[in-house]
Amino acid sequence: MTMMYYYARFRPNPDGDGRGPDLPEDTSYLVVATPGRFADWAILRCDLEESTRPDSVEPVSAELAALLRSGERYPPALALSRRAMDRRFRVGEVARADFDAALSEELGRHLREQRRAGYVLAEARVEEHGYLTPGEHHWVLSCEVGPDGQAIVEWVSGDFHIYRNAASDFALEPEELLGLVQRALVRNADAP
């Protein structure tokens, strides 16, 4: 079996609790991108034998698969692209071809701009079950000062989501925090 990326439709879970992808039982998977929170399909990374692949599960294009693999090697690109797709396609149906093109464009942009992004790989200091473990390193994307004066950072989880935590949850030097704040200000000033 080879780890691949697939478009997969969602269906009600057999136990009646929520929805999940239409995959053979006991197939492990990771949702990589969705066209909105309530979409009836998503792009997944999983191992599937061709003989057990349901008709509702189709491989993504070779071009998109290459970008997704690259995004996994540079998690900020995949996490930021995932968030951009969630924002862009909040509701309603979107054609897979349109989603594929938008995700490819966004991922490619973040991968090309990584040299100038200035994100910081920082060690977690605290335990947050299922998310942070002391000693593990995560990409920190930005820093801002909250209304209470506390520094808040955005960071990338292992499943390519972006979360916000107190900056003190990470081993960050004052210069790194300042650089993250400054780059976030510049990015925000350049945004449309």
Number of strands: 10
DSSP helix count?
A: 5
The structural class is alpha+beta
Number of domain units: 2
Task: Please estimate the helix content.
Answer: 25-40%
Low-pLDDT stretches are: none
Radius of gyration: 18 Å
Order of helices and strands: EEEEEHHHHEEEEEH
* Alpha carbon gap, first and last residue: 44 Å
Mean pLDDT: 89
Largest sheet geometry: 5 strands, antiparallel
% residues in beta strands: 25-35%
Please name the defining characteristics of this protein.
SH3 type barrels, alpha+beta, single chain, five-stranded antiparallel beta sheet, globular, 33% helix, 192 residues, 2 domains
Question: Briefly, what is this?
Answer:
The protein has 192 residues and is of the alpha+beta class.
Tell me about this structure.
By secondary structure, the chain is α+β, with helices and mostly antiparallel strands. 33% of the residues lie in helices and 29% in strands. Strands 1, 2, 3, 4 and 5 form a five-stranded antiparallel sheet that branches. The chain has a five-stranded antiparallel sheet with strand order 9-8-7-6-10. The chain is globular and about 55 Å long. The protein starts with a strand and ends with a helix.
Helix and strand topology:
Blueprint: E1 3-12, E2 19-21, E3 29-33, E4 41-47, E5 57-59, H1 62-73, H2 75-88, H3 96-112, H4 114-117, E6 120-124, E7 137-145, E8 151-156, E9 162-166, E10 170-171, H5 174-190
Helix pairs in contact: 1-2, 1-3, 2-3
